[in-house]
Amino acid sequence: MPDPRQSTTPTPPADWAQLAADIKRWGEALGFQQLGITDTELGAHEAHLQTWLAAGHHGEMDYMARHGSKRSRPAELVENTLRVISARMDYLPPDSTHPDDVLARPDLGYVSRYALGRDYHKVLRQRLQQLATKIEAAIGGFGYRVFVDSAPVLEKAIAEKAGLGWIGKHTNLLNRGAGSWFFLGEIYTDLPLPVDSAGVNHCGTCRACIDVCPTRAIIGPYQLDARRCISYLTIELRGSIPVEFRAMLGNRIYGCDDCQLVCPWNRFARLSAEDDFLTRHQLDAPSLIDLFAWTEEEFLKRTEGSAIRRIGHLNWLRNIAVALGNAPTSEEALHALRQRLSHPSQLVREHVSWALEQHA
């Protein structure tokens, strides 16, 4: 992440509205599909966050509460912040097997579509930094800091206020013309830019995402209990996956896209034009048995530059063991599981034992 830039009192443009328009145009030229600008008033979202935390719905994600009000008060995180430039970039890879085809094959592993290519943190951060540099070239030095899911930032709330869409009942950001298959990034700045109108909710009476969730993690409209969410269980959780949820994971080994797959607005989603988001190592429809055989060295090599690497090899094996427990019984699957029964990690052994019990 770039260091915060201290304002050197940039030369005020003749027209702040024109600068805002230029920023959006420059951002789109850099590969973003949309940019919006908002102020820093997030009071309603702060209240929602506090209620969510008080209910314990964040599970082991202690970082969600660690920074106090800095997450919902941008000026406390970056001094002198007046505006936030919010940007979105489509990520759905055009070369990947359709998710439904993978989910219908229990011998394959399902990886959330956002993680099939290069780590989005790096891609978006570099583009946002280029945008900030472009602004600096136009008006001189100014105060700013770039964020991509890397600090206490309420990115979905900011994007909603900046007019990029609305937070849907599944708690993901939705856009009428683009669905939800996109990443978000922000530039906190001290520039007094004009702000955009907030997004308008268009979920209506639809509850498709609530009904489809395998673990019933969406406990009500706009209410997610992360402790039940497959993305949390396979990515954020560091310990044992609760037995009650293991069968519900199916063949999902890294994240879950079910609530997005069923959302009617995603019929308008567009495929990504970014080479960085193209599928790597055929992880769009991989064999569970092949993945389970990866050594730690192979895991690190094949997930280099990928968001998947952050879960580590042990949790990778944990997740695949559960998926193999949910797969059809075969000699190949049983052999693969037995090969890991004596793994040094108690975490891996526990989930392998559970998987073998499913085939007993």
Topology of this structure?
Blueprint lengths: L15 H14 L4 E5 L4 H12 L8 H4 L7 H4 L5 E8 L8 H5 L6 E2 L8 H20 L4 E4 L7 H7 L4 E2 L5 E2 L7 E8 L18 H5 L5 E3 L2 E2 L5 H7 L6 H4 L5 E3 L3 H4 L26 H5 L3 H7 L9 H15 L4 H9 L6 H13 L2
Parallel strand pairs: 3-10
Antiparallel strand pairs: 1-2, 2-7, 4-7, 5-6, 8-9
Helix pairs in contact: 14-16
Beta-strand portion reads 5-15%
How many β-strands, per DSSP? 10
Structural class: alpha+beta
- Strand order in the largest sheet: 1-2-7-4
N→C terminal distance = 50 Å
N-to-C order of helices and strands: HEHHHEHEHEHEEEHEEHHEHHHHHH
Principal-axis shape equals: elongated
The biggest sheet, with number of strands, parallel, antiparallel or mixed sense and barrel status, is: 4 strands, antiparallel
Uncertain stretches of 5 or more adjacent residues? none
Mean of pLDDT: 95
Number of DSSP helical runs: 16
From the alpha-carbon coordinates, what is the Rg to the nearest angstrom?
22 Å
> What is the helical fraction, as a range of percent?
25-40%
Characterise the protein shown here:
This protein is an alpha+beta fold. Helices cover 38% and strands 11% of the residues. It contains 16 helices and ten strands. Helix 14 runs parallel beside helix 16.
Quick rundown:
By secondary structure, the chain is an alpha+beta fold. The chain is 38% helix and 11% strand. A hairpin with a 5-residue loop joins β5 and β6 (173-174).
